[in-house]
Amino acid sequence: MKAKHIPIFSAYMGFLLAILVLKEELPLWFQGICLIFFITILNHLQWRIYPSNLFLNFLAIALILLSFSLPHTDIFMLFLYVLFILILIKFLSPLKPRDLWQVYTLNLFLFSAATFSNFNLSFGFILILFFWITLIGICFLTAQQVTEPAILQRPLFYFASCLSVTAVLVAVLFFVLLPRSPYTFFLGFGLSYKAKTGFTEDIDLNGIQEIRTDNSVAFRAIMSGPLKSPPYWRGMVYDTYQNGRWRIKLKPQKIKPSCPESNIYHQTIFLEPYAGKTLFALNYPFAINITAPRTFSVPSLPNLTFVLNRPIFQRIEYQASSCPIFPVAHLSAQEKLLYLQMPPNLKGPLDKLLQHLVDKKDPPPVIVKKLVNFLQKPPFESRFQIPKIEGEPVLMFLFKTHKGWCEHFASALTLLLRSAGIPARFVGGYYGGTWNTTGNYYLVRQKDAHAWVEYWNGKNWETIDPILPTLEIKKTTYFSFFWKWLDYLRLRWYAYVINYDFAKQKQLFYRLKHYFSPSKNKNYWQVKKPDFEWLRYKWVFFSAVCLGWMGFLIYFLFKQHKSHPFLCLCELLRNYGYSISPNQGGLEIVDMINKKDPELSYMVRRFVEIWYPMRYGRLIKDKTKTRHLKELLKQIRIHLIKQKSIKKPYS
Amino acid sequence: MRKSRFQVKITKPGIFFVALTIMLGVAAVNTGNNLIYLIAALMLSLMALSGLSSFLNLVGLDFKIEVPEETYASKQALLTIWVKNKKPCIPSFLLGINTPLGTTWLPYLPPKKTMSVYLWVSFPKRGWQKLPEMTIFSYFPLYFFSRGFKYFKDQTFLIYPKPLSCPLPSAIFHQGEREQGRQKGREEFRSLREWVSGDDLRHVHWLATARLNKLVIKEYEGGGIKDVILSIPSGIEDIELHLSRLTYLTNTLFKAGYAVGLKTDSLYLPPKRGLQQRKNILKTLALYEG
Fold first, then answer.
1. Mutate to test the interface with A, among B15, B43, B49, B114 (most CBs of A within 10 A)
2. A104 pLDDT more than 90
3. Which range, A4-18, A421-435, B179-193, has the best average confidence (pLDDT)?
4. Long-range contacts, B153-157 (Cβ 8 Å, 24+)
5. CA distances from residue A429 to A229, A283, A284, A479, B241 in whole angstroms, order as listed
6. What is the pLDDT of residues A488-498, one digit of tens each?
7. Under 8 Å CB-to-CB from A562, ≥6 apart: which residues?
8. What mean pLDDT is predicted for residues B136-163?
9. Residue B45 clears pLDDT 60, i.e. is over it
10. Worst-scoring range by mean pLDDT, A77-86, A154-163, A467-476?
11. How many structural domains does chain B have?
């Protein structure tokens, strides 16, 4: 690529990266149009056919007006459309330096807009890439305004790359030190965050299977170590069943429970945005304190659910404490009534079924065991794909299809227990998760969603799971190490970048003050360093070092091979005692050598006579001449070695 | 040699960049969006590093200026500026050298290297002239700021008067002091030379003229000696015009092989040939003050 084309190329690349970070916001047809416009780069590089400015101005106005009439266009999308249209119009007109500056600025605006919708680690990587590419473009544009940039293409490229790397490192410092406010003034200019899939406070037994296919992350829970058995992550507790839907009707009565047991599990959870209001934590949570974006504690409801006032539309971080047993061993009359609720149309069929299965006089644990045995044996079968049948889902499951997923099993068990006079409730949450040894946390995905039952055993609430989902056992591959590290980076990205706020800034300054103070009791970061098994992966490092070293050698061999032949000649002559200044021309060198060694002078003259037309003429790709030059260089070297060996005895 | 302090000027893209950074900073504080903070931090760090690299680009430079041996007033002369980068490992990019007489650019200067740039200059006056004040500046790396410093060097150059062509006879024979001791039959051939205005066409060497396609005449030993004394009369009105013509005549006559002398009110240089005589006459003309 020619140096003068680099600013144009970087403007296009910046635009491509902007499309990439905004791909979830833009409709597919619009992305297609933007990509088609990439053909215009050929117009700038080769054809240079441009429409008149008047036409382009009218086109821009018409397209912007058209974007107002597009369906489902909010103010954010309108802003995006206007930016995209302006850039596309710029691509149709000649790209002079001023236009390139404008394109770079518009690309920056697109990235700024993307910050409202894209919080992923990939955004960070793409932003750095955009920064690097744009910086190279600006450096070359600056050079272009002064001189012919081809002269300094390589050094300028290296410089721009070094500058961008250094700028990223310095930016970390600025990011940490820039003043944070505990309050936002305009609530992000009215822009809201987008919710993703997940649990809601209303479960439809016919429509829940979507979540099963969703591989996206639900939350990450940092803990001191992995648990012996797969954990249950408790979320919503549903109390009322009606027409195939579970709902929450418990009136909020805030309580402050405490754990009677000594072994309390502490977790720091990074919850991804979703449409619900409930927070998830290890079974049974009794205290949750939100730490980001704002610090506050969430009161618990009597059924140990932690619910926020509004849906979780942005990533939040909170600390949860969990107890191995249910910490509130109390059931009020109102609660008992609620947890025995049963739709009238189900009461008859379920009572009939219960008569065959259990004796109502049995203690609750015995009844539960019998019912679970009933549900775990054929003809009952766990399946995600079941034919859609009209009618009450639980009745269909128990008496007709016998096939369903965890929600069907849990609903059936809850309602059977209620029918048997045992207070029971349907609990929604997640089961299992992948333990990341690198970062000491559980990675829980949406597909880990699960439902189980809690029943009152007469003294306390107990968890019972009618059907355990089969956990996916992943083989340990070489890539799993990489994915774990990548996910660990994501966690750090959320912890240190996305959720960095005034409270954390304050905390950081205190820690720094503490760190640099002479006191011996120093606390370190709240999040533990990754527990990395160096010895286990030593061969990876060994091979990386070997590869790096080989690459280094190859690079230098290659560099030597590709280096300037005339400079090689100068270096060779210098090595054998000829003082050659950098500004000395080839023929001057020939004259200088001629006095000492006419034979060598003749060889150098031949070299120079071939080299100059190649360097300054159009013979640069002539391989035979290049070979000839190499041969001459070899002859000169041999001659010099001979001369040195002759002179030595006399010296 | 003196260097002034660094002066920084902001360019139009620079003003826009600063305004954009402030705008994003305010947006970041307003929204509390850490990714906007990140972009603002990147822009701030870029601004800081741009200043630092611009500073490093201009430090550790040394300059040496060469003027052509003969420089005439109001005539363009090629000034050679040698720039040395004394920094051990940092190259310098896009160096601009600005003088009141013109601007030149040095795109790239590797570390520990010396490179030259050329600048066409024109001195308006004759006599001892100081080197014009130079401003070394650079828009590097990002065209947001122009950083530069002024460079003074107490180096003077002798500028000869502007040569102004004139017909030979009227100027040379101003006081009728021309000797022509040529006697027929006593000349001995010395060499061939190019014809100049005033030469006798009888001495044209026609064979050489035909071969070289320009008039060539024969010079003779002894009898062919031509001595010319140029003079500057006192009380002349337009002295600069007269000096300009005398400069032209000096160059023309020396080229033609005359032995030239100069006579002023206070100085007499007897007619001589040679480079030194020519330099002396031109120097006298350059420094003549009525």
1. B49
2. yes
3. A4-18
4. B153/B1, B153/B2, B153/B63, B153/B65, B154/B1, B154/B130, B155/B65, B155/B130, B155/B131, B156/B128, B156/B129, B156/B130, B156/B131, B157/B67, B157/B71, B157/B123, B157/B128, B157/B129, B157/B131
5. 16, 9, 12, 29, 103
6. 888 788 778 87
7. none
8. 87
9. yes
10. A467-476
11. 2
A583·B116 Cβ contact <8 A: yes
Task: Give A-chain residues touching B49 at CB under 8 angstroms.
Answer: 163, 166-167, 170
**What ipTM was predicted for this assembly?**
0.73
Q: Distance, in angstroms, between A322 CA and closest chain B CA?
A: 31
Nearest CA to CA, how far is A150 from chain B (Å)?
A: 10
pLDDT of B6-32, one tens digit each? 888 888 889 999 999 999 988 888 777
Q: State the Cα–Cα distance between residues A177 and A115, nearest whole angstrom.
A: 20
- Chain B interface includes A498 (CB < 8 A): yes
The type of residue at A309 is N
| Residue range(s) defining the domain that contains residue B178 | 168-287
- Shortest Cα distance from A127 to chain B (angstroms)? 8
Q: Identity (one letter) of the amino acid at A178?
A: L
Asked if the Cβ–Cβ distance from A163 to B53 is below 8 Å, we say: yes
Nearest chain B residue to A137 by CA distance is B142
* Domain match, B137 and B181 both: no
Does A163 contact B at CB distance below 8 Å? yes
Q: Do B141 and A159 touch (CB under 8 A)?
A: yes
The pLDDT tens digits for A578-587 are: 888 877 888 8
Residues B140 and B195 in one domain: no
Which of A196, A234, A230, A193 lies closest to A214, judged by CA? A196
Q: Kindly state whether residue B160 falls inside one of the protein's structural domains.
A: no
Domain harbouring B97, CATH code: 2.60.40.10
The answer for residues whose C-beta is within 8 angstroms of residue A168's C-beta and 6 or more apart is A128, A131, B42, B45
Could you tell me if B128 and B235 lie in one domain? no
Kind and range of the H or E run holding A122? helix A121-144
CB–CB of B39 and A127 under 8 A? Answer: yes
pLDDT at B162 over 50: yes
Instruction: Return the minimum-mean-pLDDT range out of A68-72, A442-446, B80-84, B219-223.
Output: B219-223
Q: What is the DSSP letter of A300?
A: B
- Distance (Å) from the alpha carbon of A328 to chain B's nearest alpha carbon: 38
Please indicate whether, in this complex, the C-beta atoms of B143 and A184 are within 8 angstroms of each other.
Answer: no
Say what percent of chain B tops pLDDT 90: 15
Report if residue B211 sits inside a domain. yes
Per-residue pLDDT at A186 = 46
Spatial separation of the C-alpha atoms in residues B84 and B102, rounded to whole Å = 21
- Indicate if the pLDDT at residue B178 is higher than 50: no
pLDDT, mean of residues A125-143: 92
